[in-house]
Amino acid sequence: MSSSCVHMPSAPAEKKRLRSWYAVIADKCAFPRTDSYAVTAVTMGATRCSECPLEKRMSRLPLQMCCSRCSSFLCLMHMKKHLRENRHEFAMSIETGFVYCAWCSDFVYNRVLEVMRLGAMNKYR
């Protein structure tokens, strides 16, 4: 994991959008606080890669990601391609809450998002 990422938004509106996206995905998919969120995430198939062959989609695969721009749910391999082709910047692992930067090609650290991740994870326990 890289230390800090120079690609994190600096404009207040973009910072707010990224934080809002992160909060929703963290609370409803990565660390669901209620049984209804957990059931919704599983029954919607949101935790499965839509690009993987059907036989792989039958079980939950590791490193499922959610795009920060369009909320596509894909495995890390397909998310990298999605981010590159659509020029989207970030995706979040719905298993760990870590953020992946397309431009850095790595999971990156952001102090504010890390505080949000730890808070969501603690509520989940």
Automatic annotation (TrEMBL):
Keywords: Metal-binding, Zinc, Zinc-finger
Domain of life: Eukaryota
GO molecular-function terms, A-Z: zinc ion binding
Boundaries of every UBP-type domain copy: 3-125
Keyword set includes Zinc-finger: yes
Keyword Lyase: no
Pfam families cross-referenced by the UniProt entry: zf-UBP
Name of the protein in its database record: UBP-type domain-containing protein
The organism of origin for this protein: Haemonchus placei (Barber's pole worm)
